[in-house]
Amino acid sequence: MKAIVVTDEAAGTAGMTLAERPEPEAAGNDVLVAVHASGFTPGELTWPGTWTDRLGRDRTPSIPGHEVAGVVTALGYGARGLSVGQRVFGLAEWTRDGTLAEFVAVEARNLAPLPGDVDFAVGASLPISGLTAWQGLFVHGRFEAGQSVLVHGAAGGVGSMVTQLAKEAGAYVIGTGRATDRQTALDFGAQEFVDLDNDALDDIGGVDLVFDVIGGDIARRSAGLVRAGGMLVTIAGPPEAQPVEGLAVDFVVEADRAQLGEVVQRVRDGRLRTNIGNVATLDDAVAAFNPTERIKGKTIIRVRP
Hints:
By secondary structure, this protein is α/β, with parallel strands linked by helices. Helices cover about 20% and strands about 30% of the residues. It contains seven helices and 15 strands. The strands form three sheets. Strands 3, 4, 5, 6, 7, 14 and 15 form a seven-stranded mixed beta sheet that branches. A six-stranded parallel beta sheet has the order 10-9-8-11-12-13, sandwiched between helices. The radius of gyration is 19 Å and the shape is globular. It starts with a strand and ends with a strand.
């Protein structure tokens, strides 16, 4: 099968190549998925699981990409809840070959049914950003209606999902980003916007929940904005500062079939919009992930027409 592979961690996305790889088999509890669309997060190329297996052994050349939408073609022993021919979407495991390929083997529990009225490209754009937003807000952030939420990177893939889910759940949302992101963040539902290059972050005052995707100095300064009993939730690694009278938590997104169902239902009924910036073929994937200019929104690879 055709697949995008990486062999050199230092090369980043420039080290991606299109290659022929053996078609995977569905092991126990797996399903084999014919990939129709795949999502990719550049940060994957810094994750240990992209380069080594669970025992720390080199596994290159490895296939990146962990978001998938496609059709089940085979069931491994013990796979439950899905059937051959079913449209699915979800997350492939971090330490196994991923979804930038014509086929991928995934644990059945990590996938959810993809409704027939949701395009495969849309399905592939949802797992990481949708689940990260859902878990950060409702699982780790313990969000309650009426709270104020500061969303860093509100125009990005994760931030735009957080903004929309929080707004729908009854939050007052303050988004941040670059000056050029202002209108996009407001269009996704932010009631205020802070230009991190030119506006004073401290002028926001207190908030109940900070959702951070940036880390570093922004996360440290944001900790001081959390009200008593509030939360700082981050996906950028352990926070350098804790809220004085609140909590801070960093987390790694996990696959969850029920949560995927919640996210895709909101897409179906118009409560949630995806943030897709570019759709390219597998043959053009390397160029798509090495653009000559900044692309707003997520790049999706459509593997099959």
